[in-house]
Amino acid sequence: MNVYEALLRHSERLENALIIGNGAQFPQDWQAQLKSGNSQILTWDWQTFQAYHNLDNEQRQFAMPQLQIQQLNPAQVILLWPKSKPLGISLVQLIASQTKNCLVVGANDAGGKSIGKACAHLCSNYEKIDSARRCSVWQLELESQPALNWLSMAQSFNHEQQAYLTLPGVFSHGKLDLGTRVLLEHLPAPAHGKVLDLGCGSGVIGLSLKQKQTALELTLADVDAFALRSSELNAMRMGLEAKVLASDGLQQVEGRFDYIISNPPFHQGKDTDYRFAEQLFKQAKQHLVRDGQLWIVANRHLAYEEWAQSHFAQVEILAQQQGFKIICLSQAK
Ligand SMILES: C[S@@+](CC[C@H](N)C(=O)[O-])C[C@H]1O[C@@H](n2cnc3c(N)ncnc32)[C@H](O)[C@@H]1O
Predict the structure, then answer these.
(1) How far is the CA of 221 from the centre of ligand 1 (A)?
(2) What are the chain's domains?
(3) pLDDT digits (tens, 9 = 90+) for 123-139
């Protein structure tokens, strides 16, 4: 990943640094550099956290960034600019509430060139100190900011008279996704059994089922710490019990389920990415009971049911509506 290569040109800054951000692909010597410089990574992406497996446990943290800067007191804070500009600005605000300067690096095709301008209102001074590997490296001198409360930036949407909160950066921030809505209209309402909501986001799929049938045993899994916290908060607000789990696909999931339900992610950067669904079809058998079912919603143009055929004896399209199809897979081969 180019942002890491751009940072390696400033290796003197990588001593006792706290790096905040996501990005699971880095050059070979990157982790060794962090390890020897006694630097740390704070990421809200489970895949990134796992990729840093060569670091000691004290050097890597999977969490929503909050008060870690104060607690760790690093010599240098480095922010890897996220894809979402509002999230990037909020992160700089958070950093400014706890320290006076930071380095920010972003890919030029993800807003890297205009980081200074985007954060100008939080800075007494800002300067682009490098431009390399199609990335921009910015030094920001920060104006002190009040403490940032992620909850105050949450937005809610309603489904069946229940408000679901979404923290910044979480899918369907403040609005129920159309694909999810179509899926919810067609899902069965099982009275009992184990349900896994995979890629749970706000948790709306699993929690709305559990609200109808509280005997269901619910697991909510996602890679994103903001999504997991949103799900936890929603479960708490609804008074529902659910296991909330950080997992890359089914990797960290244990046990077998009667239902696995997902609105799968399929965008990775600019390109469409089907890996999540492909892996899910392949591995679902190990996590379904014998007559268990996998339910997914997909854009109508995605040929999910064709790939699913090599892994499931029964592949049914149960609805086609508003550009989406609802697929139920059973009898895993
Ligand atoms: C299309 S959204 C669906 C969110 C929620 N279920 C809904 O319907 O509103 C896909 C979700 O999958 C999560 N995700 C992406 N890659 C993942 C992975 N490899 N493993 C688990 N979850 C993933 C994203 O963070 C996101 O919350």
Answers:
(1) 8
(2) 2-142 (3.40.50.150), 152-332 (3.40.50.150)
(3) 999 999 999 999 999 99
